[in-house]
């Protein structure tokens, strides 16, 4: 099952208002300049505790039925998914291991066959639902800002 592209785009645009406000308040760089029906992606720059720069790409196809696919990319956005592009603290495959990342699910090559994509917005083990783009940015920012170094 898939979500019409126009609906995903509308949902992402609506949620980006809060996500952009969060990014600005947190000192992150959010770039949604290429967001369109043909490119349902935006990018966010995070910094770890050593002020190393990490650029995350959010692929929002079928959002919000399914979570975005979050992948770390290089500054030119041409190289993706290598350990050296990931902050320390994530799965070594590499992967942001969270219900809000489609890459973490087995059907997308991730380690979690025990999760169902349609349940991605449910509360986690600690009772917190991370169910919007702003909440995803907040959680990633918290993890990355406390990390030191890179995976590879």
Describe the structure.
This protein is an alpha+beta fold. The protein has a single domain, classed as Ubiquitin Conjugating Enzyme (Roll), CATH 3.10.110. 23% of the residues lie in helices and 14% in strands. The protein contains 2 helices and 4 strands, in the order H-E-E-E-E-H. It has helices spanning 5-26, 133-145; strands at residues 29-31, 41-47, 53-59, 69-73. A 4-stranded antiparallel sheet has the order 1-2-3-4, covered by helices on one side. The termini are far apart.
List keywords for this structure.
152 residues, alpha+beta, Ubiquitin Conjugating Enzyme, four-stranded antiparallel beta sheet, 4 strands, globular
Tell me the strand percentage band. 5-15%
Overall, the morphology is globular
CATH architect. name: Roll
Strand arrangement within the widest β-sheet reads 1-2-3-4
CATH fold category name: Ubiquitin Conjugating Enzyme
Number of helices: 2
CATH class: Alpha Beta
Number of domains: 1
Output the structural class. alpha+beta
Q: Radius of gyration, rounded?
A: 14 Å
Total count of strands: 4
Encode the helix/strand succession as letters.
HEEEEH
Largest sheet: 4 strands, antiparallel
* Chain-averaged pLDDT: 94
How far the N terminus sits from the C terminus, by CA atoms, comes to: 36 Å
- Helix percent reads 10-25%
Unreliable residue runs: none
């Amino acid at each position: 099952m898939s979500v019409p592209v126009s609906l995903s785009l509308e949902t992402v645009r609506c949620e980006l208002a809060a996500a952009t406000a969060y990014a600005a308040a947190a000192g992150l760089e959010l770039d949604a300049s290429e967001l369109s029906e043909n490119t349902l992606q935006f990018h966010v720059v995070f910094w770890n505790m050593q002020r190393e720069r990490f650029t995350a790409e959010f692929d929002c196809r079928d959002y919000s039925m399914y979570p975005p696919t979050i992948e770390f990319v290089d500054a030119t956005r041409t190289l993706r998914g290598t350990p050296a592009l990931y902050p320390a603290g994530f799965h070594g495959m590499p992967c942001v291991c969270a219900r809000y990342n489609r890459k973490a699910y087995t059907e997308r090559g991730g380690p979690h066959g025990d999760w169902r994509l349609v349940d991605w917005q449910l509360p986690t083990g600690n009772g917190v639902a991370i169910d919007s783009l702003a909440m995803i940015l907040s959680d990633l920012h918290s993890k990355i800002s406390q990390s030191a170094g890179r995976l590879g």
